[in-house]
Sequence to fold (166 residues):
Amino acid sequence: MDLEIDIEGWPGADWEALAERASHAVAESAPELANARLSASLLFTTDAEVHTLNREWRERDKPTNVLSFPMLSREELLALEPEGPPVLLGDLALAYETCAREADEKGVALEHHAAHLIIHGMLHLASYDHEISTEDAEHMEGLEIEALARIGIADPYADSFGDREL
Fold:
């Protein structure tokens, strides 16, 4: 997958390299995302920008950690042939202040939390949805855990004893 990455207001780490690693890892866990024709845009931005996007496109008047804007249906993604012109999978936007606060609250590195949110957002672009049912949530979490493990990041859903959070 080809990523177009824009970084505004995210200090510190090599966010572009992190996004590329997360994108490759999720494509290994969810093979429908491995189609070379796919492209996606990823915006690392501020809470203020994500708040505006969330209000305008989702009618939710608050910032959130990650927004996903899919451009393909699940059926279109699964039917996409390997040969042909590029196809836009969708857009993601990550909010720095919310992501940093959540990482701090969870006691994890911001880079690890951002990688998790990129993977989570990519799965949403592929029409995975954790809000449909418990089964769908567990399947999506399993893909996230698998993809994160591929890049050396621990299960974000486990507590410090390795047990699943309730």
Summary: The CA atoms of residues 46 and 96 lie 5 Å apart.
